[in-house]
Structures are given as C-alpha cells and as structure tokens.
Amino acid sequence: MTETTPLRELDVRTVDGCRVLSSPDLGYADGAEQRLYDIVQAASDLSSSSLELAEAATDWGTTYSLVPTRANVVRGLDLPPDAKVLEIGCGCGPITRYLGEQCAVVDSVEPMPARARVARARSRDLTSVEVFVGTLDDVPAVPTYDVVMVIGVLEYVGLGVLDADPYLTFLRQCHAVLKDGGTLVVAIENPLGVKYISGAVEDHTNRPFDSLEGYALQSPARTFPRQVLQGLLADSGFASEVLAAFPDYKLPRAVMNDTMFRASEQLAEGLPRFPSPDYLVPRLNLADEGLTWSTLVASGVAEHFANSFIALATKGSGPRCGRATATRCCSTPSVSPSTRCAARSGAAGTTCTWCVVPSIRSGPGPPVTTCPCGTPSPRPNLWSPAGISSRCSWRSRPAGRSCCGDGRTSSRTPSGPRWTSSRTTSSSLPATSWSPSTRSGATAGTTGTPCCCAASS
Q: What radius of gyration do the chain's Cα atoms show?
C-alpha cells in the first residue's frame, strides 16, 4: 500500500481524477491543454521516455510537455526509491511522470485544472502519484517530504515584483514541508544568461535585454542572478549549490557543476551547443553566443552566465537526500546529482559508469573517458540520453536513427580529443533524448557509428 501524507489525508472532492484543494484560477494557460489531454488519453506508452508521445508533438506547447528531454532537469538526481516528493506547479505532468517512475510517493500540485487533468492522465497508471489542484498555500506545513521540486515556478510567485518578500515567503513554505536533510530543487532561468547577452529575447516577456536591464518594464515574472538566488535560499534557511543547465532547464542536454568549470575548461566550453534555441521569437543576432561563452569560460566566470540554474538547497543538518558532493568524483556508485559516478547496467548487461567531469580520448580501441580524480573506464555500446547531467555515454546508432536522437550525427575528428556533431537534413526522431532506464534499442553489437552525444557541440 502506498504511504500517505498529510496532503493526501485532506477530505476534498475529486474532479477528473485530481483532488481539488482550492480554485486559485491564476489564468495561466498556453492553449495546448485540450490537445495534450487528447494525445495523452489516446497514448499507450505514457512513460517519461515515450517516443509515441514525442512524435505527437507539433508545436512548442506540445513539445514542452511531451518530449523526454523535458525530464532531463531531474534525471541527473539520485532520487531514493522510497522518497516522498512534493512537486509544486506540475503543469501537464512530464516531470511528474518521471518522478512517479522513480519514487514511492509523489504529490503534484498545479493551480490550473486543465493542466492538472493532463498530468493526472499522464500518470494514470502510477499508484505513487496523486495530482492536486491548488497551490503551495494549500499544503499542510508539516515536515513531510524528502524532496520538493520547484521547476519553472519561483519566477512567477511575485508576479514580477522586485520586492523579495513574496519569494522569501514561498521558499520558507517549501522549507516548512521538508524533512530535516531534505532537498529543495529550484530550476529557473538566469537573467544574465549568455543567450540574453547575445541578443535572445527574455523568455517571459519576449523583449531583448529585458532581464539585463532589471525588468525596467512590467513583467509577469522575475528571474535572479546566481548570487541573488543563493541569497534568497540562504535567507529562507537553506544551504545551496547551483548547477548550470544548457541550453536551459526546459529541455536540458547538459548540466554542469562548479567542479567541471574548474577541472576542464575544454568541456565547460564544448558541452553546450550554440546558438541556444529560440522557442517562440527569433533573436537579434548581435553577438556570437558560442564565442561569448568561450570568453566567459576563459575568464573564469562562466558559471554565473549559464542560461538556466538548477539550485539544490538543503534543509538542516540531517541525513541528506539528493545532495551533491562537489569535491568527489568517481569514488563510489552512491550518490550525487552533480558529481555522481554511479554504476549502471549497460547494453546486454555491460556495466558502465557515469561521471560529471569526463575527458574524452580518441584513438584505437573502445572510446575511453576519464575523471580528473579517477581512472579510465571503457565505454562499450550504450544507449543513453544526450548530455543528461553532462554524462558522456558511448553508444551505437541503430539503423535509421540519428546518433543523438535529435537529427544530429556524430563523427570522430581526425586528431582532436573529442567528438563533433553535424546537423542532418532530416531525422526519424523529434528533438528528444533517451532514458537511461529503458535504453530503447540498446543491444550489444548494434550496427552504426559510435558517438558521444554529451560531448558534441
């Protein structure tokens, strides 16, 4: 029997499978909700790595909620199977689905009924998941959860105001529902992101330089530079570390911690792919984003200019859940979202390792990656996500599939230290990456060109 939580014990009505806590009616919708509901209701594969759902995406509204890449923001976290997770602002449920596949208890709260209905439909076969209509204000302030997920939400809680009070109130509410040692995960855009510096429009206002100018005009949201974000978390009772996400937290393909920036300038420069995508409004081509990023890396300040941040904030001093150990790499298969080197089962039972700070060596024999503080590990043919948590995973390309699952093919450079990639004119797959838990099509000896998607640029 699934464990209960104070939120689940509330006596509330149920509509469309969702338990209704309140009717906040925030008015946020992108118009794709009914289409998403119809797609999800008709789908036979609801999994977080579902190609059936990904192939049904036709525009940004459906892509954002259906492609497997969406859950990459949390795939790199070592979530304990027995964890209790609270997700605030679950939207249409792409991350809810992944959390429900990994954890024992997932309470997902969404203020918009139309979106909550899609999230419930996406997780309808998971007994671990309950979806609620409401807000964080409706969650009992009892230290219940091991992890609280706030993905793309914090920027909206103050309705764009500069005053810190609404953001602090929200973060302190998150603190109140976490167990001692629990982790708050906050994903948010960076107002000083390299794409904005290079001319891309601000994601919430579609105006260039808006965040760089401190949101001088009215905005529905407000994002925070790294130092300000960590200050808000500290004032709310958290100790935190911040990871860099590229191209952003929405569809991330690389997540890097500070150790990578210090240990391997080449990888810090080469892992992100530029230019970052413009999802709705084309940018002003004022500067080369890739060259700007190279300059920031060489100057030793790049971690402050990532396009998005993933903050891992810990409450108290108890046993930590999902906490990164930034000084360790390739030491044990146990635990860290950003520096883990966890042993996993690879193709045909082959064991492989993941490491956040790999360097890539080309030459005869199987591809090899090394960690600055570890020993080389061979990478046999593995089917893995493209750049999840900066994991550099080697695999083979099945016939008819693009190497990285998004229209790219990779080839070894004649003398360079890593792999490069190029666009193909067409692809049988949408812009998605692959789940390490399913490794769809991963069999030893699969024909195709071996590649390293994480290291492609």
A: 21
